[in-house]
Design brief:
Distance between the termini: 71 Å
CATH superfamily of the largest domain: GAF domain
CATH class of the largest domain: Alpha Beta
Structural class: alpha+beta
GO molecular function: DNA binding
Number of domains: 3
Helix content: 40-55%
Protein name: HTH luxR-type domain-containing protein
Largest sheet: 5 strands, antiparallel
Pfam family, one: GerE
């Protein structure tokens, strides 16, 4: 085998290793290329955690899968590699003269006279993944070249396995997050910077339906008919894009109708366009968690909730509850038959207890509380 062909085959093998991140069936090609590159008669990539066949992954070339999956063979490989460290390579003599307990089982699998090179690629707890190549009647210099070849591909194997593990973790995290969003008690949606909706939970759909003409939700994305609300949402998304780790929450009010909303936006850093699983995070495009609640429709909070959590008097709690549902102080004063000054004094007292100075801060605190109220 010429050096140029050897180098070409090595590059092909490395490429195939990284392809396995997206295409697990490529392992058969990897084993074929690896045995050819190492000039081995047969080879295998084996991953197992204990000797339970349900936890074993295997790709082979030149050897029967059933023979390698035999419990005696697996036990022999387990015993022979148990003490190996990560990245270690061992030469196992598979000969009649070898009296080691594992030797006879390996002879039945690979052949009567030869040597088995074993490279431990990954080791995490009781889970091990290793590459094995069998060489019948091999000279020592041939084995040295084969071992050098295996070591060249070791870092690429380890990178591929690390990527696979990261993908699995990301997939599980994304799935859990998506499931949580579906059942979330708040009206939330995953949106892009240009307000295209990647996912919206049932509450968000009901919120849009109940909002009248303020918000429209279509395949093209969200369309806001109220300039104040649209401006606040766009500004919060931009803030979240710049300050990714902060939670952004704001009170918005329509100048045209007086309707108020609490809007929150969080940056989401899930996904990559190489992750092939079907959920809302399967894109590396920046995404944001948008939550909107119309205060005039806030039916979750009760005066008792507000009184208990914030330590207000019953009168202050009732006043704050009315504000949270969109009533103006003048309307509250008229309904109660008291002066506006009385309402403003009670409001100032309630805000003092909460440690806020502005009405918008008070409503923001109530919106956060309502997120936890079912």
């Amino acid at each position: 085998m010429s050096d140029a062909y050897q180098d070409k085959l090595l590059l092909s093998l490395i490429q195939a290793i990284y392809e396995t991140v997206l295409l697990p069936s490529a392992w058969d090609r990897i084993v074929a290329d690896l045995t050819k590159l190492a000039r081995a008669e047969s080879g295998a990539i084996l991953g197992f955690e204990g000797l339970d066949n349900k936890k074993i992954s295997l790709a082979v070339k030149g050897v029967q899968r059933s023979a390698l999956l035999d419990v005696d063979t697996l036990s022999a490989l387990d015993d022979a590699t148990l003490a190996m460290g990560l990245g270690a390579i061992a030469t196992l003599p598979v000969t009649l003269a070898n009296s080691a307990p594992w030797s006879s089982a390996l002879r039945r699998c690979f052949g009567e006279d030869g040597k088995l090179l074993v490279l431990l690629v990954s080791k995490e707890g009781s889970r091990r993944i290793f590459v094995a190549c069998f060489f019948p009647h091999a000279a020592d210099n041939h084995l040295a070249i084969a071992a050098e070849t295996l070591m060249k591909v070791l870092p690429h194997f380890q990178t591929a396995f690390a990527l696979q593990k990261a993908m699995v973790n990301e997939r599980e995290k994304s799935t859990r997050t998506e499931r949580a969003l579906r059942s979330c008690a708040t009206s939330s949606a995953i949106v892009t910077a240009d307000l295209r909706v990647k996912f919206a939970n049932r509450r968000f759909g009901r919120f849009v339906d109940a909002s009248g003409s303020f918000i429209e939700f279509s395949d093209e994305g969200l369309e806001f008919q109220d300039e104040e609300l649209q401006s606040e949402v766009e500004d919060l998304i931009e803030q979240a894009r710049v300050n990714k780790h902060d939670h952004h929450l704001r009170w918005a009010k329509s100048k045209r109708t007086g309707v108020s909303w609490i809007v929150s936006v969080d940056f989401l850093s899930f996904g990559s366009d190489t992750y092939r699983f079907g959920n809302v995070f399967s894109s590396n495009e920046p995404s944001f968690l948008l939550t909107i609640r119309e205060l005039s429709r806030n039916t979750l909070l009760t005066p008792d909730d507000i009184k208990t959590v914030f330590g207000l008097t019953p009168t202050e709690a009732a006043l704050v509850h009315s504000l949270a549902n969109g009533d103006a102080p003048s309307d509250i004063a008229k309904r109660r038959g008291v002066s506006k000054n009385t309402v403003h004094n009670q409001l100032a007292s309630a805000m003092g207890r909460l440690g806020v100075r502005r009405q918008a801060q008070l409503l923001s605190s109530l919106a956060v509380l309502s997120f936890f109220t079912k």
